[in-house]
Predict the structure.
Amino acid sequence: MRRVFYIIRSLFTLFAFCIFAIGCEENLDRSPYGFSEEEDNDLIAGAIFFQSFTNNGDGTTTDSTSGLMWKTCSQGQVFSGDATNFGCRGGSGTLANPSSFGATELQYCSVDLHSCNTLGIPQTLTNVSPIGISGSSEAYDSCATDTTGGHTDWRVASFLELKYLSSNSRNFMLLKFPDTIESFYWSSTANEQDVAGKTARAVSFSRDRFGEDESYSKTSRYFVRCVR
């Protein structure tokens, strides 16, 4: 009963801050893939942090604090709605991940080498191999060819940018970025500690590991969020 009480209290706090602190009109997702129990301090921090994020009604979300513009939806999902009532469920979920709503898992690079990233620090995703061995990046191409909001300069979010987005309340993040997949998202940043160049950094957006990071084989497939 104590756990139920804390869940109810946390959800009530979330509603209260949504209505009174930031005046948002987004609807809470009550599915198993939606909101989860969070500490009151995290909810308060999230209400303050995400107050600077504004949905533009065209599939983009602007953060006035950092100056970044994000794609509201994960790559492969389809934005629907307007600036106040929106979602990313324009595509259907897959059998393997019914909550994906069309989100696609992409490779960082087609080879486990430095073929898809620069060699300087930070080692950043690129479409020009610096080592003379060719490789292709599904993640890079997905953002580079995207024209959401009429923009043509989308790129894969960096490691620090994804850590920034996942720095406090996951519940408030979901209000601004609905239908975010409970999985890892590739960053554009390779693992500079991996001399052989086999791995790149990814950040988790799942409820149990929100904001945590791992390095994975570049040929693995994870989700992608674009930024400009």
Observations:
- DSSP finds five helices and twelve strands in the chain.
- Helices lie at 2-21, 40-49, 138-144, 159-165, 170-176.
